[in-house]
Specification:
- By secondary structure, this protein is mostly helical.
- Helices cover 63% and strands 10% of the residues.
- Helix 7 links the parallel strand 4 and strand 5.
């Protein structure tokens, strides 16, 4: 099954930050494509727009990231998979009730883990410690 990457991981892969070397090395080691959903598209788009607002990148850098992403979709590094949103949201609500008091996860953290579970991913790629804790609790392998 394809690994599920959260936006912290994909953001580090596409935009240089302290986690970029680890993200690049892990992506190079993968043998299956990384799942890419509408949630990823929304979060990456917003993260890029926020980076422009914060003057960390400019519009041409944003365009370059999207060109890289489209290339990765075409070559199969990323695989678009649809989510059954009602089921994902229902699962996220259950995960939140059961585990947020222990993990401190935010809504989007829980939503990504629920999406990974819904898609039957066995592995979560994330740099977010709370999200990694939740994924571990429900039996996903977490990397890096």
């Amino acid at each position: 099954m394809a690994p599920y990457a959260d936006t912290s991981f994909l953001g580090s892969y596409y935009l240089p930050d302290p986690n970029t070397p680890a993200a690049v090395a892990l992506v190079r080691s993968l043998t299956a494509p990384i799942t890419f959903t509408a949630l990823h598209r929304l979060e990456l788009s917003n993260a890029l727009a926020l980076a422009v607002f914060q003057r960390r990148i400019n519009a041409s850098q944003t365009q370059a990231v999207w060109m890289d992403l489209v290339s990765d979709l075409r070559t199969g590094l990323l695989a678009v998979l649809p989510l059954r949103w009602y089921a994902v949201l229902r699962q996220a609500a259950q995960l939140s009730t059961q585990h947020t008091p222990l993990t401190g996860c935010r809504s989007l953290d829980v939503l990504h883990v629920a999406a990974a579970q819904s898609l039957r991913a066995t592995e979560l790629l994330s740099f977010d410690s709370r999200q990694r804790a939740l994924a571990t609790i429900i039996g996903l392998t977490v990397r890096p």
